Amino acid sequence: MTQFNHVQTAHCESGVISNIFRHYGLHISEPMAFGIGAGIFFGHLPFVKVNGVPGSTYRIWPGAIFSRVCKRLGVKMQSHKFSSPGKAMQALDDIIEKGIPVGMQSSVYYLPYFPASYRFHFNAHNLVVFGKEGENYLVSDPIMDTVTQIDPESLVQARFAKGFPEPKGKMYYPLSVPKQVDFARPIKEGIQQACYYMLKIPMPHFGVKGIRFLAKRVKDYPAKHGDRRAALYLGNIIRMQEEIGTGGAGFRFMYAAFLQEAGTLLNKEELKSIGGDLTLVGDLWRNFAFAAGRVCKARSADNISYGELSDMLLHIADEEEKVFRRLSKVKF
């Protein structure tokens, strides 16, 4: 059986990166992987429905972090998608038989080791399969505290779940991983890319403009959609923030940790200072989620209105803009 050092992390994609790279001797923390991959982001897409309600995202699209980190660190990866479960499972068996851990995209809904309350239709979850015990597969799922197992039928369902985005049996594994890398250039490129995505995308749905776009829509939810649907829409914003991956606040805290680590590595105190400011923004996101949750459950003793929630989001947008404008001016 392949020995695989499982470490629990906050987010699946950056956690898989950290765990797989460590297996090959390249030690990179989860926040460093997230930062080099420019994972921090925001988007509100009313035309993309998640379970029938508008979707929000607090991180870059699935797969982007992994591909960016590999490119910037010189890691060569092999990736496959499949037309049939039979071919996908045979390919997986062939690779893990060679002692190679395999990353894969899956649906959370079909992972039986998740508690029932966490199993919903989200098809962009990443995990590592690294061996078998009998018929069952050994799984290093970054958000679990220990190694677990999954039966072949459930793994097929998770790998070939329908809905957006379809995993189509996607699996990936390294062909070559350098033992040592110079992190300076990858850090710089990751920061510059994150600043561009947060500040300069011309469309109103993304970056700090996207947070303001959402704020305006939240304010109009009751009048436009009625109280019941307004609560449903608001509830999905919270769910995307707090339950899928690490959520809005969690990603801000992780990127702040990246800036702290990068500041130490590159001897740049300004990066550490900006990381401290972003941690405070993470607190604002958490405060918003708490207030919005009380509104959804009609438990707001202070009678917080949708207008006040909108104002909280506008304040968050202002603070995030300050952080990323300051970060964009750091000299490397």
UniProtKB/TrEMBL annotation:
**What InterPro entries is this protein classified in?**
BtrH_N, DUF4872
Residues in DUF4872 domain copies: 154-327
- Signal peptide limits: none
> What are the residue boundaries of the Butirosin biosynthesis protein H N-terminal domain, all occurrences included?
11-142
- One Pfam annotation, family name? DUF4872
Protein name per the record = DUF4872 domain-containing protein
Recorded source organism is Chitinophaga lutea
